[in-house]
Fold these 3 entries.
Entry 1:
Amino acid sequence: MKPHPPLILHGGTNIPDSRLSRPEAYKQELEHALRESSCEWVIWNPILTAVHRSLPNPLLQSIVRNTDAAVLAIGLPLSGFLSAPAVRGLLPSWETAGGQASKACPSLLPFLWKKDYLREMLSSPLYPLPSSLYLPYEWMPNSYGLQSLPQSIFESSAGGGSKKRGTGLKFRIPELQQQLAGIVPIITGTRRNVAASGMMNAYSPQLDPASRLLTHECKLDSPSHEAGINSASAMPQNYCTGNKSPGECVHPARDNAFSAAFKPNSPVPEVSILLPVYNMRREVGWAVRSVLAQTSPDWELLIGDDGSEDGTADLPYLYSDPRIRVHRFSPNRGKAFVLNELLPLARGRYVLELDGDDWLQPEAVAQLTAIMDRSPEAAIATGSSALWQGTRHLGPLWRGVQPYRGHRADPAGAAPLVPRFYRAAMLRGIGGWPIPAGDDGRLFEDIAVCGALLAEHPEPAVVDWPLYNRVLRASSVSQRGSKKYPAWIQNLVDNKKGGHL
């Protein structure tokens, strides 16, 4: 009888934690770890830190030898706020081997892979992710070739401290289900939309770059860039460049090839998403991907690059969909400046503000549009949000739901409304994002604009569950400037610039 190759235990355990924040680097390390092995199967999932020593028992070996599946996985139960019906409706559905669909998020934790399948996935282009922790969900098949293992295997193998979980597995992230609920729907939503449209390919655009080029003719105070193809990246650029004054940028129509190729997307969108970025090359891809994963296709995304020096605006992923337009501004002038420059270009009835290191749940555009349609007097829709803490190695970690606490500014601390979904006509009616005297628009512009809007339209529309994922980073401008808030808001009130207290 021919002996069966053994399992590889922990194919990724020798990869440094520092690679978790860099998925491309992690992928290269994993490929190197698998290159020399003769084993047929790999136990691998970056979320796992330990597998109980008795887990690869004879029963598990028998299942591995008698399956054609590419991935074996286990089910994990839902807990906490994920049991709420409104949240559960957002979660992805994978079919198990028996054809039963589960709404758990995720219903399966992939951890045992055929080495050949895993190496095939390693050779494929990598879409943006917030951390390498989620590579298994990027590479996990939706239903074909996926098989779940009996829970009894893990219950019998668990021991010691692992007995509590009943799986024989230990994890990097304590709040695993909640963490995955904020990430995996974006991955599966992107898959769904790509399959439906057949158009988007983040790294290999199907159209010739010349047919996707959308240029802007601008009067420049002192030209420092040329609109068009960036020679360093050879990617099509659909942006406005240079130092310019408001109102000086002329936007010609798309050329015939571009318009013909994307005729279905030519109608005016309901929602314009404004995304200002500055040196966010590592984070912005995930924010953009969350927009591409939306269940409603009725949006446009206007990205304003505020003089980035790290090549943020050159990322190929930003040019993966015709509804995305990239505008470059130089020099760096602050978030409020960029938002006010993008506002006249927005075509939607509604405007959604998105930060470059935050992201949306797939239902965000659809649900925020619906609640504003039901609230004709409201100037802004807001509500609760999912709160995340940025970390150096693991990426953003889930910290819980930030509930809606009312719309009056707190004089004791900067607490912006999140999300911020505006009625475009009313936002233009107050002149966009106010920049108080002595302020360069880099601090508390979110509180200022909401205060100005709510002074004229006091009651916002409120969603009662999180559609927006907000990341707190110690290095952010708002966090570093938090000590300035009491004086800032007092100045706002004293000058009667819309402080809604």
Entry 2:
Amino acid sequence: MITVSIMLATIIQALDGTIANVALPHMQGSLSASTDQITWVLTSFIVAAAIATPLNGWLVDRFGLKKVFLVSVAGFTIASVLCGLSATLTEIVVARMLQGVFGAALVPLSQSVLLDINPKEKHGSAMAVWGMGVMIGPILGPSLGGWLTDSYSWRWVFFINVPIGAMAFWGIWRYIHGEAGARRVRFDMFGFVTLSIAIGALQMLLDRGEQNDWFSSIETWVELILTTMAFAYFIGHTLTRPAGTTFVDFRLLKNPNYVTGLLLIFIVGMVLFATRALMPTMLQGLMGYPAMMAGLVTAPSGLGTMAAMLVVGRLTGKVDFRLLLGAGFAITAFSLWQMTGYTLVLSESDIVWPGVIQGVGLGLVFVPLSAATFATLSPQMRAEGTALYSLVRNIGSSIGIALVQVLLVQNTNTAHESLTAHINGTNAALQDPASIYSLATQAGAAMINNEVTRQASMIAYVDDYWLMMLLTLAVIPMLVLIRPPKASSGPVQVDHAAME
């Protein structure tokens, strides 16, 4: 019952990262907002969640896990109601910020609880359950959001959280016991402020960079300077203070498994979310897929991930972490290699099967990586460790999405110039006035330009898939840095929760 309760909380937070995306055009008309203004509905949630995530470790130490979890679920659910009732853009942006603040704790705390209530030999299965909850967001979010918006209204994208949040709140209140983590801990205000500014400015830069044309905008430069200066102050402050008195405990970074896990989950976040961001735009923009069909052909990748997680959950602890991770990264790289062969002429199976294979590979990576990262971390540091783990994954996804979008635009322009250089008057077909591609007519020239743009965009998408594949292959040698955990003897300590 603890598992069911905390996974309900995880699911609503994971869903809200993507479920509102497809409803933005409807919100824009209802709230009388411009295209630039309505994106703040997404940006406010992302930035608020990123700033609040590192706070989870201190809150659990100070107030106890159960209280923090209950307040987070209640706050997130109430903020969802406020989002659905919003009548102006300002109201929904403030409500989304509250969603981000309260929702930031749900994913890392659910991971911490699952590790606490399960013995070490069951950590693989526990992380499989947690991974499936986290993966539901990017898989079901767009499809569920589209169905709710079309069938009812965009407000139900938020109202659907209310019954789920209520069940999660009751389950956590009823079944989680023990406040062993509650103690008086001094709050490092300077560390929190500088880290918050750094993370908030970085997320703003990545989220708004494309629409601001990146470094041609003063806003982007301001965000870069704020990120650099705040992070430098945070590092200097943390390194010059005694261990255990800073906002982020750097003793976490003395654990080789944990540090390697952070780096690998950063890459996984980049590859997973960047690929999922590329596919829908490629299918709808270049191949004319309607939104529903694009969702149907990409959804099987999530099924592959879930199936792999169920299997690997039973293997974790019996098979070396590094073998499972190596197999997962290799399978993911193979699927991306298949995507590098994409053209403008694809069947549904050409899209579905590489997606399924990629889903299987990521499923093989996600579970053992989570288990390996925390295998040698003391239970007392799990709350802070899971918060930092979630933060790094989210930053990786933001950087990955921004990176592929930048390269997509640049490589499209480069490929367009290269292809245009081969279009000249020496081709007789291009001079025939009866041809739809005739340079002699304005309509023909426009048709040629449209086709060249489509081909150039396809080349740019393929270039992005090559990059994702090379990044995936590059992390495989790093698996040697992961140390298998020593066999534990005696009973496993449960610090924050006890199963009734």
Entry 3:
Amino acid sequence: MYKETGNQMIEMSTEIFEKILDHSSDEIYVLDGDTRIVFINRICEQHYGLKRSEVIGVKNEKLFKQGYWTPTVVPRVMAEKKPVTIKQTTYYGGELITTAVPILNRSQEIELVVITAHEPNFKELTLSREENASEHHISVGNIITNNPKMKELLAFCERVAAVDSTILIQGESGTGKGALAKFIHQVSQRKNGPLLTINCAAIPEELLESELFGYNQGAFTGANKAGKMGLIEAANNGTLFLDEIGEVPLKIQAKLLQVIQDRQFLPVGGTEVKQVDIRIIAATNRDLLKMVENKQFREDLYYRLNVIDVKIPPLRERPEDIIPLTYYFINRFNKKYQVDRLISQETLEILSNYSWPGNVRQLENVMERSVITTESIINPGDLPEIIHQHAKPGSPDTPWSSLDAAIEEVERKLVTKSYRKWKSSRKVAADLQISQTRASKLIRKYCGTQWD
């Protein structure tokens, strides 16, 4: 196919068509007559962490069963042979307005199904929520991942959740150890029982023992006259999650060991031993084995906790999860603050090339800040300066792989840095030695705001 431009004819090859579709802001997803995937554009790859090479030829139903979106539009369009538009919920909690258009051959059989999807505007979002108030959304314990190691980890945790062995979750701060503990509880036989969490680092040492084990009447000065049930007893028939277990003092470690070994304990000031039926999950970002060597953690407790050892990889080792998590958090905070924020492609590229030393928690905090402080679209200039300073350069397949795009990236950095400093198009113009008109246009382009 050819397109005429001036006196020249440009050949519209498949490669050029794919480049055009890859620059669409909408998801584009094409199936053949047997509902096998024949094309997905770059936005689809990023939204779901899917690689085009891995899904071409795969049946659409497989991805649907894996929970990437719900409901599916395909059976309806295949049956009706006419365009269908529905609202979908993605596995990261986002909402999409999706349209499927069948392309028929001369025999009126479906040859292709072209599916496009976009994030709804505020009006569409409001109507769809009113009409689908009871529709399924992502549950509290779900963990969003497209990383092979994380998928293997979740499958392993689902297997061990069936038994009551103690689990020790290790990983850097902010990797999602609490979310994994919730996941294990929700897929275990104790899912109908309580899940109680205690952050051992957040409670003063003198109060931690009474919080865990409870106390009897008159156990100490200032105690409740009627006594108090501890979290261990309150978690009976459920799961007790001990976060930051490495911060537990040695004295209390001895009592915890008794709970794990014998499922019994003595309340503070008590004389009667109590029995409990609980499953214990512990988590830490510290090196417990080194603490054992330094006599800071009991060796016997360490091995009792470490019956099943689970290590969560940091976010920098699962980069395919960054964009799905970004959309998940934007969607969550949009609902929390009743706003309708979107995010630009350039911003997603920067987020993807940052190492996230604070892991998922840092990404969550950045997205909450961005949703609160941005007026409409989250642009690169809305991100904290630390992310710009430490983001790696774009990879060869990023939008600035060409000379023009590379120049544009340098331009963006200079403009956003200058505006963060001066907060005025006039001063930015002087700083960059350009006209104020040009400065205003560039600020609108890269920072998404109207200026003086």
